[in-house]
Amino acid sequence: MAEVEVLRTSVLAALGEGGGEGVDVVGRVCRGCVRLLPVDGAAVSVMADAGRREIVYASDPVSTALAELQFSLGEGPCFEASAAGGPVLVPELAAGSPAAWPVFAAEAAAYPVAALFTFPVQIGAVRVATLDTYRSTPGSLGTAELATALQVADIAALALSGLSGGGERWLDGDGRWMDGAGMRHREVHQATGMLIAHLDLPASAALARLRAYAFGHGRSLLEVAGDIVAGRLRLDEEFR
């Protein structure tokens, strides 16, 4: 049996045994992705309306940093792949900043990242997540490797379809966002809701203001959101 099918069988078995109660079933997919492909790290993040994202699993600190950076900036290959519905393949990041996400590309240069390969993850006809991978040396994926990556993205969808947190489903059958327990960005969502209520803004505009404030002050989005939720940052002047 091909190793990618071994991975699929392993995920199915974990779901059948109740393994969907935690994120490690998605972790199996990310770790398998690193074994199967010439990449150094992989992450799976789910996306909802207004550009909200949640990292489900990242295989290493660099993958986590790249996912957090994209969420904070609101741009990057994950957003492009999700919007376009196809792979985003950047075999040499240093060759030039992609027009769609120049700020992310510039910020990513601070990490040992030379190439990025991102794939949309679909449940049925709905794009619910992305599989984000990177490598520390430049180079393209071959035809067979690209085919394997697409199969791994399908297995990620299978894993997500059975994922739950704290007894609450993260994703239901048609891919809608669910507020499962332990979300990394829960305070960001709470802070966005506070801005929506306080400034009478649509969700996308509220999140954009959070991102702009964080970027302009050289802080992470998570830090700014935490200060808003805790009442350490005023909503009346700073965000108008």
UniProtKB/TrEMBL annotation:
UniProt keywords, alphabetically: Transcription, Transcription regulation
InterPro entries per the UniProt record, alphabetical: ANTAR, GAF, GAF-like_dom_sf, WH-like_DNA-bd_sf
GO molecular function: RNA binding
Residues annotated as domain ANTAR: 151-229
Pfam family, one: ANTAR
Domain of life: Bacteria
Identification of the protein by name: ANTAR domain-containing protein
UniProt source species: Amycolatopsis albispora
